[in-house]
Design goal:
The structure is a homodimer of 171-residue chains. Helix content of chain A is 40%, strand content 18%. The first copy, chain A, is built from 8 helices and 6 strands; from the N terminus they run αααααββααββββα. Chain A is globular. At the A-B interface, helix 1, helix 2, helix 3, helix 4 and helix 7 of A face helix 1, helix 2, helix 3, helix 4 and helix 7 of B. Strand 5 of chain A pairs antiparallel with strand 5 of chain B, so a sheet runs across the interface. Chain A binds a DNA duplex (30 and 30 nucleotides) through helix 4 and helix 5.
Chain lengths: 171, 171
DNA sequence: CTTGACAGTTCAATTATAGAACTTTAGTGG
DNA sequence: CCACTAAAGTTCTATAATTGAACTGTCAAG
């Protein structure tokens, strides 16, 4: 499967992985949330090669996650800022950071602590149900086919006999 | 930067990206949450090459995200199941799926809908503050250095004059 | 008129991934 | 006994992605 095919899959996870599922995109986006905006800033903060950084920034702009806006004329210079689509990635970033805080810290503890401005306390992010407000777990979720569901790649390609039975599943 | 170095970074996001930040790991984990457990199951559902699948499964086992347990003797066969560490990835997966549902769907709508068993309603996941229960946004969060904070790579490698000023930042 | 910053581009060398065939252990049907 | 199938990998070559380093173009300052 190529990256482009990934974008076409009838799966919201696969389509999002097509955007952020590589070694660098999430790190670049972390820097965006840390208020880095310029090429040199990303490059020196991350140690990414300039070649790849240019490529990834282009891709994120093409996908509508970043916007490239001029901040000076002569010589023309641009900076990269998060669009709303980009800002909406924050829950993903926070969930990732929280998992790292829980499972990947060394003896010395967390690299960063987060304060929720509106309540003033150090907090952890919790994923809850939009309807009842209770925390969401894998076992507590039942999945139904939606309008955008297609027969998955594997089942479509394989002979009829090989089709896997469908079942309610937790993603 | 190599994958191994990524694991060492004093950043919970980088360390988590070292685990799931490639083309396939998240898709394999999606299948795990969809109750796939066996080699052939992953392979036919994803279309990943067998070579890479074997490698990724090994990696996820080594990192403690999956456990490899025998389900029959002669011939010895094993299946892969999520550990608690793996189950804890669910908020990341759900956040990713939700972003895809919001920003990457075609005209036909979402591939899947999610029902929250305990309240019986179709829902979206919302990230809230563990302390006050209010939704978390990038702008509403203030970051403080934690005990595991080290001077970042870039600042440590560069001459003193080039050190970037520290600032409270939103990741 | 030389130096430096910024935002890239170019190119060779190294790694990773894709695609396909092959291996091992065992069960099944004839 | 023999061919065929299945699961779970392994091995191999070709192709694609990434790295590392140098190079380009525009302007400003000294």
């Amino acid at each position: 499967m190529k990256w482009d095919e990934l974008e076409e899959e009838p799966c919201s996870l696969a389509r999002t992985v097509a955007v952020i599922g590589d070694r660098w995109s999430l790190l670049i986006l972390r820097e965006c949330f840390l208020r880095t905006r310029r090429f040199e800033g990303f490059q020196s903060a991350l140690g990414i090669t300039r070649h790849l950084l240019a490529e990834r920034l282009k891709k994120l702009v093409r996908l509508g996650v970043l916007r490239r806006i001029p901040y000076q004329e002569s010589p023309k210079r641009h900076e990269y800022i998060l669009t709303q689509k980009g800002l909406d990635l924050y829950p993903i970033i926070m969930s990732i950071v929280h998992w790292g805080d829980t499972h990947m810290v060394d003896e010395r503890g967390r690299p960063l602590l987060h304060e929720h401005k509106s309540c003033g306390k150090m907090f952890d992010p919790v994923l809850v149900c939009s309807e009842c407000g209770e925390p969401v777990t894998a076992k507590g979720v039942h999945v139904h086919p939606g309008p955008g569901k297609r027969v998955p790649r594997a089942a479509a390609d394989l002979p009829k006999a090989a089709k896997t039975k469908t079942r309610s599943r937790a993603v």
